[in-house]
Amino acid sequence: MTDxxxxxxxxxxxxxxxRGALLLLRERSGRFDLPGGRLEHGEExxxxxxxxxxxxxxxxxxxxxxxxxxxxxxxxxxGVWRLVLCFAIxxxxxxxxxxxxxxxxxxxxxxxxxxxxxxxxxxxxAAWL
Length: 129
Prior knowledge:
Elements (H helix, E strand, L loop, with lengths): L7 E7 L7 E5 L5 E2 L2 E3 L6 H13 L3 E3 L6 E6 L5 E11 L12 E5 L21
Parallel strand pairs: 1-7
Antiparallel strand pairs: 1-4, 2-3, 2-8, 5-7, 6-7
Protein backbone atom coordinates (compact mmCIF):
# COMPACT_ATOMS: atom_id res chain seq x y z
CA MET A 1 0.00 0.00 0.00
CA THR A 2 1.35 3.41 -0.93
CA ASP A 3 1.13 6.56 1.16
CA UNK A 4 -1.16 8.89 -0.80
CA UNK A 5 0.64 11.90 0.72
CA UNK A 6 4.01 10.86 -0.73
CA UNK A 7 5.42 12.08 -4.04
CA UNK A 8 8.57 10.95 -5.76
CA UNK A 9 10.25 13.62 -7.88
CA UNK A 10 11.39 12.43 -11.29
CA UNK A 11 13.69 14.48 -13.52
CA UNK A 12 13.46 13.70 -17.24
CA UNK A 13 15.49 14.82 -20.25
CA UNK A 14 14.08 16.00 -23.57
CA UNK A 15 16.25 15.30 -26.62
CA UNK A 16 14.88 16.39 -30.01
CA UNK A 17 16.33 15.40 -33.37
CA UNK A 18 16.62 17.66 -36.42
CA ARG A 19 12.97 16.84 -37.38
CA GLY A 20 11.65 17.78 -33.95
CA ALA A 21 11.04 14.15 -32.94
CA LEU A 22 11.61 13.26 -29.28
CA LEU A 23 13.97 10.58 -27.95
CA LEU A 24 12.41 7.76 -25.94
CA LEU A 25 14.37 4.90 -24.41
CA ARG A 26 13.08 1.34 -24.65
CA GLU A 27 13.38 -0.45 -21.33
CA ARG A 28 13.93 -4.19 -20.97
CA SER A 29 10.21 -4.48 -20.07
CA GLY A 30 9.35 -3.18 -23.57
CA ARG A 31 8.02 0.12 -22.26
CA PHE A 32 9.30 3.44 -23.56
CA ASP A 33 10.24 6.36 -21.33
CA LEU A 34 12.22 9.58 -21.37
CA PRO A 35 15.81 9.47 -20.13
CA GLY A 36 16.12 10.38 -16.48
CA GLY A 37 14.91 9.15 -13.14
CA ARG A 38 14.22 9.78 -9.50
CA LEU A 39 15.81 12.74 -7.76
CA GLU A 40 17.89 11.70 -4.76
CA HIS A 41 17.74 13.64 -1.47
CA GLY A 42 19.87 16.78 -1.68
CA GLU A 43 20.59 16.33 -5.41
CA GLU A 44 20.33 19.21 -7.90
CA UNK A 45 18.05 18.69 -10.93
CA UNK A 46 20.95 18.99 -13.37
CA UNK A 47 23.09 16.57 -11.37
CA UNK A 48 20.24 14.06 -11.39
CA UNK A 49 19.97 14.18 -15.19
CA UNK A 50 23.71 13.84 -15.68
CA UNK A 51 23.81 10.84 -13.31
CA UNK A 52 20.75 9.17 -14.83
CA UNK A 53 21.98 9.54 -18.43
CA UNK A 54 25.29 7.99 -17.42
CA UNK A 55 23.55 5.12 -15.58
CA UNK A 56 20.88 4.44 -18.22
CA UNK A 57 22.77 5.04 -21.47
CA UNK A 58 26.44 5.37 -20.56
CA UNK A 59 26.43 8.83 -22.17
CA UNK A 60 27.18 12.25 -20.76
CA UNK A 61 24.61 15.01 -21.17
CA UNK A 62 24.42 18.76 -20.82
CA UNK A 63 21.25 20.30 -19.38
CA UNK A 64 20.09 23.15 -21.64
CA UNK A 65 17.16 24.52 -19.62
CA UNK A 66 17.52 26.45 -16.37
CA UNK A 67 13.89 25.78 -15.44
CA UNK A 68 11.66 22.81 -16.31
CA UNK A 69 10.13 23.04 -19.78
CA UNK A 70 7.20 20.74 -18.88
CA UNK A 71 5.88 19.46 -15.53
CA UNK A 72 3.00 17.24 -14.41
CA UNK A 73 2.04 14.70 -11.76
CA UNK A 74 1.00 11.12 -12.50
CA UNK A 75 0.99 7.66 -10.97
CA UNK A 76 3.68 5.18 -12.00
CA UNK A 77 3.18 1.44 -12.68
CA UNK A 78 3.20 0.75 -8.92
CA GLY A 79 0.56 3.41 -8.17
CA VAL A 80 3.08 5.81 -6.61
CA TRP A 81 2.50 9.48 -7.39
CA ARG A 82 5.36 11.18 -9.19
CA LEU A 83 6.06 14.81 -9.92
CA VAL A 84 7.74 14.78 -13.35
CA LEU A 85 9.96 17.72 -14.32
CA CYS A 86 11.31 17.79 -17.90
CA PHE A 87 14.41 19.68 -19.04
CA ALA A 88 15.92 19.92 -22.52
CA ILE A 89 19.29 18.17 -22.68
CA UNK A 90 22.00 17.58 -25.26
CA UNK A 91 23.72 14.18 -25.41
CA UNK A 92 27.43 13.79 -26.03
CA UNK A 93 26.63 11.05 -28.60
CA UNK A 94 24.16 8.26 -29.37
CA UNK A 95 26.55 5.42 -28.69
CA UNK A 96 24.46 4.05 -25.84
CA UNK A 97 25.54 1.27 -23.51
CA UNK A 98 22.71 -1.20 -22.88
CA UNK A 99 21.17 -1.31 -19.38
CA UNK A 100 17.84 -2.46 -17.90
CA UNK A 101 16.53 1.04 -18.56
CA UNK A 102 17.89 1.32 -22.11
CA UNK A 103 17.92 -1.64 -24.50
CA UNK A 104 17.11 0.58 -27.46
CA UNK A 105 15.76 3.96 -28.40
CA UNK A 106 13.44 5.62 -30.85
CA UNK A 107 12.70 9.18 -31.92
CA UNK A 108 8.94 9.75 -31.91
CA UNK A 109 6.42 12.39 -32.81
CA UNK A 110 3.39 13.23 -30.70
CA UNK A 111 1.10 10.95 -32.74
CA UNK A 112 3.43 7.98 -32.17
CA UNK A 113 2.93 8.12 -28.41
CA UNK A 114 -0.57 6.60 -28.62
CA UNK A 115 0.66 3.44 -30.35
CA UNK A 116 3.67 2.77 -28.10
CA UNK A 117 3.75 1.16 -24.66
CA UNK A 118 4.71 4.27 -22.67
CA UNK A 119 5.59 4.27 -18.96
CA UNK A 120 2.42 5.35 -17.08
CA UNK A 121 4.03 8.42 -15.49
CA UNK A 122 5.15 9.62 -18.93
CA UNK A 123 1.78 9.37 -20.73
CA UNK A 124 0.83 12.99 -19.90
CA UNK A 125 3.77 14.07 -22.09
CA ALA A 126 1.53 13.97 -25.19
CA ALA A 127 -0.46 16.93 -23.90
CA TRP A 128 2.72 19.04 -23.68
CA LEU A 129 4.18 18.34 -27.12
